[in-house]
Specification:
Layout lengths: L1 E4 L8 E4 L14 E7 L4 E7 L9 H12 L16 E8 L8 E6 L2 E6 L2 E7 L2 H21 L2 H6 L14 H8 L2 H10 L3 E3 L7 H7 L19 H8 L4 H6 L10 H5 L3 H12 L1 E2 L1 H8 L5 H11 E4 L2 E4 L1 H4 L13 H17 L2 E2 L1 H8 L3 H11 E4 L3 E4 L5 H6 L1 H22 L3 H4 L16 H39 L51 H19 L2 E3 H14 L12 H10 L2 E4 L11 H4 L1 E4 L7 H11 L7 H12 L5 H10 L1 H8 L8
Parallel strand pairs: 1-7, 2-8
Antiparallel strand pairs: 3-4, 3-9, 4-5, 5-8, 6-7, 10-12, 11-12, 13-15, 14-15, 16-18, 17-18
Length: 690
């Protein structure tokens, strides 16, 4: 079948869809009384006659509707002049927003003629006559009410009028007003109706217009659009939907997939990676570039867009802040931002830690810009500063000393420029830690330190146990040989001394309770029962006494729990094979505390406290040999009566016991000097000194 494209009615042909009517009434029988259109809105309004003689028409209903609309009087303004609803109005609405894919086809003598549609309109009944009936009803009621009121009452009724002056309309308010429903309705109402003349189906004018549905020329020159290949023809008939294309996810402009990245030149790949990552070890960069990439070429390209800091590559400042750009926070030009960021990078070449306030004081930049610089290459640590985010890459430094030397020379030049611009002092030029670049500093958390100390104690204890078993075996062999030569041994008798033997009661319970810093095995309890080599017990007592004395001179008040914690830390700092690794029990530690001049303070803690038994045992140094011993003893006596004490009670008690009339400043000085004891007692429970 040959297909032809008719152009005569292009942008003039509409398709009207009428509502369903009874089978006994067709549209051929309906008379169109009037028609009008608004071309811009593609809105049509048709007025069609109703067959009142049709058996399906209800005459009484038609008369009632005409009476409600027009009332009893008939004039030119009446909707139904025949006092009968004999016509109906239809209003159109667009059935489809996009009609470019629709056409009207006429088949004739083996030829198909297509005419594109300019619009598809659905006609629906309009009930505006009901609104007219309501309006007339309201007018009649208003007239009745107005007739009852007198002229005098109307004159006496004074109403207050509020006068308002309009303000200048802003651009944003104007846009909201233009997009409002009220404004759009007003614009649609302003368009004038264009009245049309209706020609029936069998009219000669209709026959003439119908001929325009056929293509006027059958020559190929006028139908070049249809001379296409089969695939192009199908594409014209069924073009891809715009909505389907919009549904495809679109990647952000700053996101590039690895597959797309591999298609770029090597220099562009490295620049994009460094611009997004900002800090990267060389090994990670090689893994991202894929296997087979020449490392020499990568080194040549990376030096163009990045600088070496602690063995890692950091993107250059001019890559992040190109020329003719400015800060989004302060509006500072790119040159000033690059200088400030170079100063931060240079500081990290000198030390692993950088203080934000120092950078802000030198660069004179706003805090937001300084924070951006630091976040590019470091991580904030509480109460320490900003630490470089990657560890020192010692492998790269060893493998590429020539690159390291070249980068060092570049940093020397940058340092010289920074000295001139910022007038750097010696404290800024001298690194705090010279070993920052020579070796990777080891950062160990508190939990790791405790685990390392426990492992060290176990290792040292194993060595001591082996040495003790060896000495024990030697002693047994010596005893055996002594029994063999007992006849040759002469025992020298010495007079018995009047002095009492050394009191070892403090060490009788050495194997009782918890062993501090040591987990004793069941088969090695001999070392805790006094069977130590000669003189070992004395050395243990001396070392333990020295530790307890020095600890209580620094902190006058300690709980047993805190003392054991400090002792474990002390053990972790001792070298392998120290005598204190032989094992110290809780009882031995408490006895040694009492022997060094300390006393146990019986603080009346509340019964609902969640403290452990070791935290409830409080020990304090009673006499330290300074001028505040008496004041400290008074404070400790106060806390034996109550765990919460007010300042005025402390002041009165100190004045009575010490015989001095202390004012507030003197009490503060006493509390400051004796603050160790007070703070130690206060920190035992959540409740504090009031």
């Amino acid at each position: 079948i040959d297909v032809f494209l008719a152009r005569s009615l292009l942008e003039k042909l509409y398709l009207f869809q009428y509502p369903i009517r009874p089978a006994s009434m067709t549209y051929d029988d309906v008379t169109h009384l009037s028609a009008k259109i608004k071309p811009k809105q593609q809105k049509v309004e048709l007025e069609m006659a109703i067959d009142t003689l049709n058996p399906n028409y209800c005459r009484s209903k038609g008369e009632q509707i005409a009476l409600n609309v027009d009332g009893t009087c008939t004039d030119e303004t009446s909707t139904y002049s025949s006092k009968l609803m004999d016509k109906q109005t239809f209003c159109s609405s667009q059935a489809a927003s996009n009609v470019s894919r629709y056409a009207a086809a006429v088949y004739k003598k083996g030829e198909l003629h297509l005419t594109p549609l300019h619009g598809i309109l659905q006609l629906r009944p309009s009930f505006t006559y009901l609104d007219k009936a309501d309006a007339k009803h309201r007018e009649r009621e208003a007239a009745n009410e107005g007739g009852d009121s007198s002229q005098d009452e109307a004159e006496d009724d004074v109403k207050q009028i509020t006068v308002r002056f309009s303000r200048p309309e802003t651009e944003q308010a104007r846009q909201r007003r233009v997009q409002s429903y009220e404004f759009l309705q007003k614009r649609q109402a302003e368009e004038h109706w264009v009245h049309l003349h209706y020609y029936g189906l069998k009219d000669s004018r209709s026959e003439h217009e119908r001929q325009y549905l056929y293509s006027q020329g059958h020559g190929l020159a006028e139908n070049t659009e249809l001379i296409k290949s089969p695939s192009e023809y199908l594409m014209m008939l069924m073009p891809p939907s715009i909505e389907e294309e919009n549904d495809k996810p679109v990647a952000p402009s700053n996101v590039l997939s690895m597959a797309q990245l591999r298609t770029l030149p090597l220099a562009d790949q490295i620049k994009i990676l460094m611009k997004n990552v900002k800090v990267m070890p060389f090994a990670n960069l090689m893994s991202l570039l894929g296997s087979g990439t020449d490392s020499t070429a990568v080194l040549r390209c990376i030096q163009q867009v990045a600088m070496l800091v602690q063995g890692n590559w950091v993107v250059k400042s001019d890559v992040l802040y190109p020329k003719d750009t400015s800060s989004p926070h302060s509006g500072v030009p790119a040159e000033v931002l690059c200088r400030g960021r170079d100063f931060v990078m240079w500081k990290f070449t000198q030390d692993r830690w950088v203080v934000r306030k120092e950078v802000a004081a030198v660069t004179k930049l706003c805090p937001e810009d300084v924070k951006d610089f630091l976040e590019h290459m470091s991580v904030a640590r509480i109460n320490k500063g900003w630490e470089f985010m990657l560890p020192y890459d010692e492998d790269f430094v060893k493998k590429h000393p020539d690159i390291v030397q070249r980068q060092h020379m570049l940093w020397m030049g940058i340092q010289a420029k920074l000295e001139k611009v910022y007038n750097l002092l010696k404290e800024h030029l001298t690194p705090k830690k010279q070993e920052a670049q020579s070796a990777h500093p080891l950062l160990v958390s508190g939990e790791q330190r405790v685990n390392m100390a426990k492992a060290k104690v176990k290792q040292n204890y194993g060595q001591l146990e082996k040495e003790f078993q060896k000495q024990k075996a030697e002693m047994k062999s010596n005893d055996t040989s002594a029994k063999m030569d007992v006849s040759n041994i002469r025992i020298k008798e010495e007079p018995v001394s009047d002095e009492e033997p050394m009191d070892t009661s403090a060490y009788e319970g050495m194997n009782n309770g918890i062993v501090n810093g040591l987990h004793a095995e069941e088969d090695s309890t001999d070392s805790l029962n006094g069977h130590l080599p000669g003189g070992c017990i004395d050395r243990v007592a001396q070392e333990l006494k020295a530790f307890v004395s020095s600890t209580f001179k620094k902190q006058f008040v300690l709980t047993l729990s805190e003392l054991k914690r400090l002792f474990n830390l002390h053990l972790a700092s001792l070298p392998p094979g120290h005598t204190l690794f032989s094992g110290i029990s809780d009882k031995m530690l408490q006895d040694m505390v009492l022997d060094t001049g300390c006393k146990q303070i019986l603080v009346p803690f509340p019964p609902q406290t969640a403290a452990s038994p070791d935290e409830l045992k409080v020990y304090a140094l009673w006499e330290a040999g300074d001028t505040y011993d008496q004041h400290r003893q008074v404070l400790l006596e106060i806390f034996t009566k109550n765990y919460r004490v007010r300042r005025n009670v402390i002041q009165n008690q100190l004045s009575q016991e010490c015989g001095e009339d202390l004012n507030k400043q003197e009490v503060d000085r006493v509390l400051k000097v004796s603050s160790y004891s007070i703070v130690g007692l206060i920190q035992l429970i959540p409740e504090c000194l009031m």
